[in-house]
Amino acid sequence: MNKNKKPTQINKLIIFCISLTIPFLFWRLWLYTFYNPGETSILRTLTGLNIHHYHYGITLVLIATLLFIFYKVNNYSIVIAGIGFGTYFDGFISRLFKSSTRATEIFNYNNNLIPTTILFTTLIIIISIFYLITERYKN
User: Fold this and answer.
1) N or C: which end of the chain has fewer CB within 10 A?
2) Residue 6: pLDDT band by 50, 70, 90 thresholds?
3) Which of helix, strand or coil describes residue 31?
4) Contact predicate 59/84, CB 8 Å
5) Taking the model in full, what pTM does it have?
6) d(CA 80, CA 16)
7) b/e map of 45-77 (b: 16 or more CB within 10 Å)?
8) Angle at CA 49, nearest 5°, toward 44 and 25?
9) Could you write out the DSSP letters of every residue in 93-126?
10) Where are the domains of the chain?
């Protein structure tokens, strides 16, 4: 495909579907190849946070969304979106069936007002910076 030519709708769909499938295959192969039931990830050990790959996925979806809104739809942004959604949705169903009580969920939700506020503030700052950078390079 010519570099200056925009991807067609069918090409966008194919690129997105392939990008959506790759993380599913990657994470499943990773789990079956490297999983050790007693092992804790380095990131969890260092931060104490219960970070899963769907957190990475939603971060990639945010990046792709910013690219779509402020920059352009191209093969790169489509791939980032596909990988982000694929990574997120690979962990989606297991999260639906995670056993916990509603009281625990509400307790965690209520006790995380400040970190959630910090997250939203940080996101708004990042989005604003992204906007300012793209506007600067447009002119």
Assistant:
1) C
2) low
3) helix
4) yes
5) 0.76
6) 9
7) eeeeeeebbbebbeebbebbebbeeeeeeebeb
8) 65
9) HHHHT----HHHHHHHHHTTHHHHHHHHHHHHHH
10) 6-98, 99-139
